[in-house]
């Protein structure tokens, strides 16, 4: 019974239980809002033989037919963004990627970014193991799958040594890639998630090489790697190197 002098809305929104409120709410004539489609796009890097590479697909169909694009797709109903990324990585690379190697980067909702209609994308950084290079396979919407080299000093991407212009990329994916570089470089010293690009066990020399590729303007020597990142790693064993002393190996804590 609604008390005298109180509106129905006030009663159910403030004084009723949540269960009673929801039962009342869904019986109202609610405003009909337009809803965007939601996608995930992944800036998926891997570190292979001294190079940072980015996984891209070449689109098979319109829009942006034959253009390069980030790996991604539409989210399924009831799915959160991180698990959508996991699913897409499984479909494209056949890898079960742990959630700690998936990092939300930005949400892009620029009007007109997708000619098919109102689409919002949740972009993520994804750190792939080097074995991804051999495991990739083109999905239904891909004509081909490619790994391009990324120069973190200039932000430029190269396919087989040829620089890729912004027009070579679908949607606003080139701009998202540039933002990913800024994110990784900006958190180099205080949240170095980029270390997930290293193998499960790695040496100080490999870690130093990766750091200097990401931030070539402020290179470090191998003796300083543990000074900067020692709190994030732990020693696990030794790695034999031809004609050199065995090197200590580390892994992320």
- Would you state the CATH class of the largest domain? Alpha Beta
Q: From the alpha carbons, calculate the radius of gyration and give it in angstroms.
A: 23 Å
The count of domains is 3
Number of helices: 7
State the distance separating the first and last CA atoms: 58 Å
CATH topology (fold) name of the largest domain = Nucleoside Triphosphate Pyrophosphohydrolase
Q: What proportion of the residues is helical, as a percent range?
A: 10-25%
Mean pLDDT over all positions: 94
Could you state the CATH homologous superfamily of the largest domain? Nucleoside Triphosphate Pyrophosphohydrolase
Short description:
Keywords: Hydrolase. With 253 residues, the chain is of the alpha+beta class. It contains 7 helices and 11 strands.
Properties at a glance:
7 helices; 11 strands; globular; single chain; Arc Repressor Mutant, subunit A; about 250 residues; alpha+beta; 8-stranded mixed sheet; Nucleoside Triphosphate Pyrophosphohydrolase; 3-stranded antiparallel sheet; about 25% helix
Strand-helix topology:
Elements: H1 8-15, H2 18-25, E1 37-48, E2 51-59, E3 68-74, H3 81-93, E4 102-108, E5 119-127, H4 132-135, E6 142-151, E7 156-159, E8 162-163, H5 173-186, E9 202-203, H6 204-214, H7 225-229, E10 233-239, E11 247-252
Parallel strand pairs: 1-5
Antiparallel strand pairs: 1-2, 1-3, 2-3, 2-6, 4-5, 6-7, 7-8, 9-11, 10-11
């Amino acid at each position: 019974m609604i008390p005298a002098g109180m509106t129905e809305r006030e009663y159910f929104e403030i004084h009723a239980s949540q269960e009673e409120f929801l039962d009342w709410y869904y019986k109202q004539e609610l405003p009909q809002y337009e809803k965007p489609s939601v996608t995930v796009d992944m800036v998926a890097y891997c570190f292979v033989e001294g190079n940072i590479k980015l996984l891209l697909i070449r689109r098979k169909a319109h829009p942006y037919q034959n253009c390069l694009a980030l790996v991604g797709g539409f989210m399924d109903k009831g799915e959160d963004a991180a698990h959508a990324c996991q699913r897409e990585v499984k479909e494209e690379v056949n890898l079960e990627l742990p959630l700690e190697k998936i990092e939300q980067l930005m949400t892009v909702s620029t009007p007109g970014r997708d000619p098919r209609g109102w689409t919002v994308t949740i972009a993520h950084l994804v750190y792939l193991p080097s074995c991804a290079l051999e495991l990739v396979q083109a999905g239904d919407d891909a004509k081909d799958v490619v790994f391009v080299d990324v120069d973190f000093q200039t932000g430029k991407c190269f396919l087989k040594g040829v620089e890729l212009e912004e027009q070579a990329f679908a949607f606003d994916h080139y701009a998202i890639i540039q933002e990913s570089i800024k994110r990784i470089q900006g958190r180099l010293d205080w949240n170095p998630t980029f270390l997930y690009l290293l193998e499960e066990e790695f040496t100080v020399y490999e870690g130093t090489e990766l750091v200097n590729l990401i931030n070539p303007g402020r290179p470090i020597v191998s003796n300083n790697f543990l000074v900067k990142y020692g709190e994030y790693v732990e020693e696990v064993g030794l790695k034999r190197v031809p004609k050199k002393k065995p090197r200590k190996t580390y892994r992320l804590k």
